[in-house]
Amino acid sequence: MIQSTTAAQFGKFVVVGLANTLLSFLIFALLIHVGVYYVIAQVIAFLIGAIQSYVVNRYWTFSLPGFSVTTLLRYLSAQLLVLALSTSLLVMFVEVAGLPKLLAQAIALPLTAVTNFVIIRGWALAPARTAA
To answer: Does 113 fall in a domain?
Structure first.
């Protein structure tokens, strides 16, 4: 049962992640198009995507009831970690590998997806544990 729950949650997480990736990529592309520095564009796009991801993953993917400040703070901490990782990859792909910014972003986004799922499921949005 636990494996099927994890698989179902991962499936939903992938759907949310694909929508979030598309949203973040489109915002990133728009900001680049209007002349925003690519690292700033990455941060803005990521934060907008993180808000969307929190709401949908909390209520749909993991079916968590109500609102919890603790959960929100854990989620934001997890997202800051993933933001640091994805931004580091983006800068490495652009500055070191010489890739175009949009291609670099298209590569960096999916590379952080599994890390993001593990942190969110295992800690940020994990159900409260009760003492046995």
So the answer is: yes
Per-residue pLDDT of the chain (132 residues; tens, 9 = 90+): 557 888 888 899 889 988 988 999 999 999 999 999 999 999 999 899 988 988 898 889 888 888 888 888 898 899 899 999 999 999 999 999 999 999 998 899 888 877 888 898 888 887 665 444
Q: Is 121 left (phi over 0), alpha (psi -120 to 50) or beta?
A: alpha
How many domains does one find in the chain? 1
- Whole-structure pTM over 0.85, yes or no? no
Contact present, 101 and 32 (Cβ < 8 Å): yes
- Which structural domain range is residue 111 located in? 2-124
CB atoms within 10 A of CB 30: 13
Whether residue 129 lies inside any domain: the answer is no
Q: Is 9 helix (H, G, I), strand (E, B) or coil?
A: helix
In a domain, 132, yes or no: no
Instruction: Note the helical H segments in 62-100.
Output: 69-91
